Predict the 3D structure of the following.
Amino acid sequence: MKIDTAPISTLTMDPANVRKHSERNLESIRASLNRFGQQKPIVVNKDGVILAGNGTYAAAKSLGWKEIQVVRTDLNGADAIAYAIADNRTAELAEWDGPALAETLAALQNDEDYDHLVAGFTDAEIELLVNAACFNVAEVDAPELADGDREPFRQMTFTVHDSQFEVIEAALRSAKARGGGESVVNENSNGNALAFVCEAFDG
């Protein structure tokens, strides 16, 4: 693999590219290029058509760059198209380690030189990740109860829409973060957090 430096004016975006780049995506790429420079080349064919790195090219061009690092490939036809799709799709199939990501982003936020655009996450998104890492509703174990009542505990079952679930989950996380998941009479954090939210609303 040989890395060359090519004039941006000699390159063109792939007309068959099926990957779209939003303004937020391009803003994040520009922030990364400004902070770190170009750390990996884009891939172009012998005619200067970009197969991988269209977003990097567009961001660099908007920053006024005159040159960019490239790797030239002999792929063409169906192979070139398939490679361009695979380059994006394989990245999508990876998954984040939520707690580790939240911890890392939280640490970056404490760095006075940190720019959230560089990492591609907004402050609000980081806050959600941190809250989710601190309290995962799905991982809280419910007590072993028989059907119906088992004094002094009672089971309650709700059916909610997906959109309602997200609101309820966020409220329980918030209550847990403020200490509302703890109680001397109940070991179940979900029940305690729900009571905490209801008491706050009633007040």
In short: The mean pLDDT is 83. The first strand starts at residue 3 and ends at 7.
